[in-house]
Specification:
By secondary structure, the chain is an alpha+beta fold. The protein has five helices and 13 strands. The chain folds into two domains: 129 residues, Luciferase, Domain 3 (Luciferase, domain 3); 90 residues, 2-Layer Sandwich (GMP Synthetase, Chain A, domain 3). Helix content is 19%, strand content 30%. The strands form four sheets. Strands 4, 5, 6, 7 and 8 form a five-stranded antiparallel sheet that branches. A hairpin with a 5-residue loop joins strand 7 and strand 8. The longest helix is centred in the first third of the chain and has 10 residues.
Amino acid sequence: MPNKHLNYWRRNMPECRYVNLYGPTEITVDCTYYTVEREFNDDEPLPIGFPCKNSDVLILNADFKPCVVNEQGELCVRGSSLALGYYNNPQKTAEAFIQNPLNKHYPEIIYCTGDIVYRNELGEIMYVGRKDSQIKHNGYRIELGEIETAALASQMIENCCVVYDFMRKKIVLIYQAKEEPNMIEFRKVILTKVPKYMLPSEYHRVDVIKQNSSGKIDRKYYNDFISNGSN
């Protein structure tokens, strides 16, 4: 949940209790929660918080070792709500449901979500993005979600989606706005949040950011949009 949008609700309905829930279907929807109690700037990420009861979260690096504070790794889940696997798909099951690499004593299956997270100094789990949304651009490893968060810090746009054009080696920002913003000022805002090598090189304005059937940004649509040269 972008804090820019959440802050709108918090300003207009301050009497409500706001809780950020995270979790994939494979663990019966939710495995972490965060009760929003402190103030956040529009450009700050919102924590996904702490494990729910009967769930446990492991954050593992590429060597399947536990990550330290502020070290990014893959979020893996174990607990009583974990699925047994994918129906009629043993290959996909074997890839995502694995033996807990930290447990050498007895069988214990964990689910590898494909989500990149880290724990901050407060012990809160912070969502970074999907493993498949990490790119390598001009020698730098970049998380596209960080660029989206930086762009949303601007009051010039309402929503956005960042994709990577692998053919042309370009970072592309699709943004929702009622009118064309001052692009010089817009870029300046983004550069206050991310280094220059993460600055998008192409921008497309749309009236409404397209969503998929789950109500999330339809990233496949925009990846196809860019791949088909619709610019």
